[in-house]
Design goal:
This protein is α+β, with helices and mostly antiparallel strands and about 200 residues long. The chain has one domain: 3-Layer(aba) Sandwich (Glutaredoxin). The protein contains 5 helices and 11 strands. The strands form 3 sheets. Strands 5, 6, 7, 9, 10 and 11 form a 6-stranded mixed beta sheet that branches.
């Protein structure tokens, strides 16, 4: 019981959740295979996301690992990890696409840019209305039925969701299809290289 309480207390401090009513993630317009959606980067430029049979790829960068990071400008762990995610992306830009999807809030692009400059988030950040539908599809794809919390990440390669390390329960042999809450970027980097078989 003590172990559970300790884990619960730590978990509360390392993730952010929304006070909003949980949305029905099954009531969205599901993506069809081959369908595309364009996301604009608040730093400039855009990327076209393509629906595969079971996941997503970035058009023109299909050979790269794709990480979607659900974040919020209000979220303390998102702020703390932002510069480390920037480093992860810079060090692996030839084989990694990192896309931050603003979630749980309605803010201007200027507010997201302010977050980026203040906390060093210089990777691709989308503040698009399409984020909500994309996130709903991702959560549906991985059968995630728990309360959404931030930060939240998934890793895909060649259009398939990848099993990642469970930081909070390393003995979990089955692994997970997502990172929930604040996890060391070194762990994400290790999983990235395992997926690419280049450790």
């Amino acid at each position: 019981m003590r172990k559970f309480l300790a884990f619960f207390c730590v978990f509360v401090f390392i993730s952010c959740s929304s006070d909003e009513k949980m949305q029905d993630d099954f009531a969205f317009d599901k993506f069809k295979e081959g369908e595309t959606v364009v996301l604009d980067n608040v730093h400039g430029g855009s990327k076209t996301i393509v629906r595969t049979q079971n996941g997503f790829v970035v058009q023109g960068e299909e050979d790269k690992v794709l990480i979607f990071d659900f974040f919020g400008t209000f979220c303390p762990p998102c702020k703390e990890e932002a510069p480390f995610l920037t480093d992860l992306w810079k060090e692996n830009s030839s084989k990694l696409v990192l896309i931050g999807l603003d979630h749980f809030e309605e803010v201007s692009d200027d507010e997201v840019r302010k977050f980026a400059h203040e906390f060093g988030a210089y990777y691709f950040l989308s503040n698009s209305p399409n984020n909500k539908r994309l996130i709903a599809q991702i959560l549906h794809d991985i059968d995630y039925a728990n309360m959404e919390q931030l930060p939240f990440k998934v890793m895909l390669y060649k259009g398939e969701y990848q099993t990642v390390s469970d930081y909070y329960r390393p003995e979990n042999e089955k692994g997970l299809k997502y990172y929930l809450g604040s996890v060391p970027v070194s762990l994400i980097n290790s999983d990235l290289h395992k997926v690419l078989n280049d450790e």
